[in-house]
Design goal:
This protein is an alpha+beta fold and 117 residues long. It is built from 1 helix and 9 strands; from the N terminus they run αβββββββββ.
């Protein structure tokens, strides 16, 4: 039994050591997932620096509407849903905001909810 505990302790120590030594390069700036909510919608984006990986817009009340997102030169098609994810996967040097909007029955309910990247 004593050898089993030593083996387990050694395995855990090796795992912790590997986890601590395999990190991001020193010059890599952190990215992440950022979000901003308005009264009716939330806009979320996953990004690394200005490289936007995806944009998600969802209604807070769960009811369908026409959702869209925009970022620099990217303007998503309008989608009738309560939540939608748009893949982007490219970088725009001067774009600082990822934004979304919601329309219902032909009226703009909310627009300009933006996340700073």
């Amino acid at each position: 039994m004593n050898n089993r505990l030593r083996y387990l302790a050694a395995t855990l120590a090796t795992g912790v050591t590997l986890a601590l030594t395999t990190g991001a390069p020193a010059d890599a700036r952190p990215g992440g997932v950022d979000s901003q909510c308005g009264r009716y919608i939330c806009v979320m984006t996953a990004h690394h620096n200005r490289f936007v990986q995806d944009i998600t817009v969802q209604t807070k009340d769960g009811l369908p509407g026409t959702l869209r997102s925009y970022w620099g030169g990217f303007h998503s098609p309008k989608v009738v849903a309560a939540s939608h994810r748009w893949p982007v996967n490219y970088e725009q040097a001067n774009a600082k905001l990822v934004c979304g909007g919601l329309e219902r029955d032909g009226r703009t309910i909310e627009d300009g909810i933006c996340v700073t990247i």
